[in-house]
Design a protein that fits this description.
Number of domains: 1
Distance between the termini: 40 Å
Number of strands: 12
Strand order of the largest sheet: 1-3-5-7-9-11
Strand content: over 45%
Structural class: alpha/beta
Shape: elongated
Largest sheet: 6 strands, parallel
Helix content: 10-25%
Order of helices and strands: EEEEEEEEEEEEHHH
Length: 218
């Protein structure tokens, strides 16, 4: 467990770690920005399934805290990712934003559990949770479980979850303008993932991951 004191800033990017288990308690005015990126390097040629497990728990115990959680997984073969987020606003005046995205191909599996709790004393809280999932094959599977508990009245809270396939009309539109189907697919999948990567503050790491995405999208 990590405690952030007033004015502290914690920012970290976890890349391809088999297990992330993070618990942070925020005191007044502290800031958290976390990225969990699962883009396995060995996408082909390995028969061993990769299983990633991510658990992030944030407790806002002081006023005026800021929390940002971003997660991106791009899986192939038999790879699996489970990502859990548990965010509690114990007092008011804080903000939290979660953007979680999965891209699943072949027989890969994704599971997202998003728990967001706003306590009765947490008035004037603003909290947002978004989960978007893209399935690139008929055998890929995604499970998403948003869990919202809101016990305060004066709050702004939103959540959304969707799972779908590539937009065939967009693919057709791009092909009509001379872009090959493969290139159009690369552009659409890349755009879906890059809005998560573009939020990384470290410019060098951000560019490395953007290039990695370009290299693995087929």
């Amino acid at each position: 467990m990590k405690v952030l004191h007033k004015g502290d800033i914690f920012e970290h990017v976890f890349v391809n770690e088999p297990e992330v288990n993070l618990h942070i308690m925020q005191e007044a005015g502290s800031k958290v920005k976390i990225h969990v990126i699962n883009i396995p390097k060995d996408l082909k040629g390995s028969n061993d399934p990769k299983d990633f497990r991510n658990s992030i728990t944030i407790e806002q115990l002081g006023e005026g805290c800021e929390t940002e959680i971003y997660a991106l997984a791009f899986l192939h073969g038999e790879e699996k990712v489970t990502t859990e987020t548990h965010v509690t606003h114990a007092v008011g005046g804080g903000t939290s934003n979660q953007l979680i995205k999965f891209v699943l191909d072949d027989n890969s599996r994704g599971h997202f559990v998003g728990e967001l709790k706003i306590n009765p004393n947490a008035q004037q809280t603003e909290a947002h949770q978004t989960n978007r999932n893209l399935l690139l094959s008929d055998s890929a599977e995604m499970r998403t479980q948003p869990q919202l508990e809101i016990y305060a009245d004066d709050v702004k809270a939103t959540h959304g979850a969707s799972t779908g396939q590539l937009d065939e009309s967009a693919l057709f539109y791009m092909q009509q303008r001379g872009i090959s189907k493969q290139k159009a697919r690369q552009l659409l999948v890349g755009a879906f993932m890059k809005d998560v990567l573009n939020t990384i503050s470290d410019e060098t790491l951000r560019e490395q991951l953007l290039n990695a995405v370009d290299g693995v999208v087929e």
